[in-house]
Amino acid sequence: MQFRHIMKSLKDDYTISVCSEQNTDKINDIQLLDPLAESYDPQVLYVADKHAVSTCKSFPLHLVASCNPADFPTENNFALIQEEDFFAVFNTLHTLFYQSLQISSDFSQLIAMSIRGDSAQEIVNAASKKLGNPLIIIDNGFKVLFHSDIWEIQDTLWRENISRGYCTYEFITAVNQISDSLKAPDNSSAYTFTCPASPHSKLCSKIFWNGSQIGYAIMLEEQTPYNIIQQEMLPHVSYVLSDVLSKLPAFSGLHGSLKSILLYQLLDQQPQENIAIRIKSSGITPPKFMCCLSISHDTLPDTKQWERFASEQLLRLLPDASVCTYEQRLIALVPVKDMFGPSKEVLVSLQELLPKVSRNIYISQPYDDIYMTRTYYHQCTFLQKFALQMDFSGKILSYGDYQFYDLLEQISDKSRLYAYIPPALGILKEYDRKNGTSLFETLETYIHCQYNATKTASALFIHRNSLSYRMEKIEELTRIDYNDTNQLFHLAVGFYMEHYLSNS
Q1: Which of 98, 129, 162 corresponds to the end of one domain?
Q2: pLDDT value at position 375?
Q3: pTM over 0.90
Q4: Cα–Cα distance between 214 and 154 in angstroms, integer?
Q5: How many CA atoms within 13 Å lie on the side-chain side of 297?
Q6: Residue 74 exposed, middle or buried by CB count within 10 Å (0-12, 13-18, 19+)
C-alpha cells in the first residue's frame, strides 16, 4: 500500500491533515514509533504520540502523529491526527494491514485455481467474492468477456452492456473523455472512475500479457463500499486473469494492436453493429480497397516463434496492413490502391518473402467493404485446401486465378462433372497414350495462350511448323472448329475439370 492510499482510507472516519505525501514507496507494515531507535524501516508506517515525537532523534520515511514534529523532512510522508483519535487510528491501521496480508492468501488461491485449470468464469466469480463486489472483464475493444454472476448487477448501464455483449459507442466515447480515464496509469495499478449515466463508482485495473494490454478488470461499487484493500487486490486479480485469458481459444483477438484486434473480430463473425462501434470509437479509417492475405505455419517447429517472425516480416513489407492470428493462420488485411489487387512490386516482394515464412501465400480478390472480410478470408482458406490437394509449393495463389475450382467444390456429387468434359479431350488423351504424342497438352496450351500460335509454339518449345501439324491432327481426330468460340469455351472448362478431378 502507498501512503496516499492509506490516508484516503482514513479520511472517511477521522480528522486528518496530510502535510506531506511525496514518497510513493510501498508500505508493508505498521508500528508504534520508538523514539530511541537510531533508524527506521522505510517500508513501515510509524504512528507516534506527542511524547514520542518530542523525544525522537530522527524521523522515519512514513509517519502519522498527533503533533507536528519540528524540522520534519519535506520529502518524507507525514499526516497529523487528533490526539483523541490516536488509539482508534492505530487500531484501524492495524486492521487495515491485517486485511492487506490476506491479499497474499487470496492471490495464492486464485493462482491455484488457474493452475488447476478452473474456468475463467469460476475464477472471475471467486475474485468477485473476495473483492465483495461485482466484477466485469472487458477487452481492449470494449467487448464484455466475463462478468461475475454471484450477485445481480444493479447498474442499469452495465446490465445493458452485458446484455449486448459489448459497450455502446456513446458509452465508449464518454468514458474516453473522462479525466480519470485519461489519467489512468499505464500499468495494472487500480484507479477509480465514473461512467456517464451510471450511479456507481468503478475501480479499474488494466490487464497485461507480455507487456501488452489485453483488457480491463472493472469492479462495480455495489455490494460493499470502495476501500483500499480492494484497490490493492484488484491488480492481483488482473495478473491471474492475464494468464487465464492467454489460454482462451480467442486469445489472438485480445492482444496486439487495436487494428489487429479489430481484424480478429471481423474474422470471428461478431455482429456488424458491434464492430462498427469499435471502428468508429477507435478513430481508425477502413481502407477504400483491400484484400485478405493468409499464410500458414509449416516451416518452423515453434508456432509462437513462427507467428512472431512471420508477423514482423509481413508488417515490414506491408506497414499499413493489419495482422492477426486466426484459426492457426496468420491473416493480413492489406490496403490496395484499386480493385486490381496488390501491385506487381508487392507481389515480387511477397515472392522473396515466401521461402522464409510458409509453403505458399494465399490472396483473396480485392473488395471495398471491410465488413465482408470474413467472406474473402474464406477465399484464402479454399486456396490453402486446393494447394494441398494439388501439392503446390512456393506459390503465391490469387483467388481470381482459381475461383472456377472453388465453384466446382460446391458440387457435392463430383461424378456428375465427368458428363461436362467434352469427348474431344478423352479422344486426345487416348491417342497420346497409344502413340506417345502430346496433343492433349498442345490443345490446352493453345487455349491458355489465347489461341495465339506463336506464343503456343514458344511455350511448347517447338517450331511453328510442328505446331501446325499437331493442330491439324487435333482437328482431324476431334473435328474441332478453331473458329467456334463456344466450342473453345467448353474445351477450356473441360481442361479445368480434368485437372480438378484427377487430383480429387
Answers
A1: 98
A2: 95
A3: no
A4: 26
A5: 17
A6: exposed
